[in-house]
Design a protein that fits this description.
The chain has 127 residues and is α+β, with helices and mostly antiparallel strands. The chain has 3 helices and 10 strands. Strands 6, 7, 8, 9 and 10 form a 5-stranded antiparallel sheet that branches. Strand 8 and strand 9 form a beta hairpin. The longest helix is centred in the N-terminal third of the chain and has 14 residues. The termini are far apart.
């Protein structure tokens, strides 16, 4: 069965692996998922990631035995796309989280998109 929303599938795999206290999780690879994993590593939500043949192995991060990611939410879905301008990029959890956008400059987190003054499609929120 084909996955209709690969980004939601990736976020769900990470959420489920964290709940089961796994140390890593495999996700089918794509350029967008690699960009998402890169931003998650840069922001400190995952320990590391590596490409293995057709999969991305994401090493999950725990702080004092608790997952570094306390929440993941898919915002823009295949049935309802959500676009924002650079001045309307939301603050996630009052600044404690990040939102990830697909912009004309590539996949960016919310603060980078505001700094570059570009808007786009809000892919997800992570806190």
């Amino acid at each position: 069965m084909a996955v209709t929303d690969p980004i939601a599938d990736m976020l769900t795999r990470i959420r489920n692996a964290h709940q089961a206290l796994h140390k890593d999780v495999l996700v089918p690879t794509s350029k967008m998922k690699l960009s998402l994993a890169g931003i998650m590593k840069q922001e400190g939500y995952i320990a590391d990631f590596a490409v293995e043949e057709r999969d991305i192995r994401i090493q999950l991060k725990y702080v004092n035995g608790r997952p570094a990611v306390s929440g993941l939410k898919r915002i823009s879905k295949p049935g309802r796309r959500v676009y924002v301008g650079s001045s309307d990029i939301p603050r996630v959890q009052n600044g404690l989280g990040i939102c990830i956008l697909s912009t004309s400059q590539g996949i960016l987190d919310g603060t980078s998109a505001q700094d570059k003054r570009v808007g786009g499609e809000i892919l997800c929120e992570i806190w």
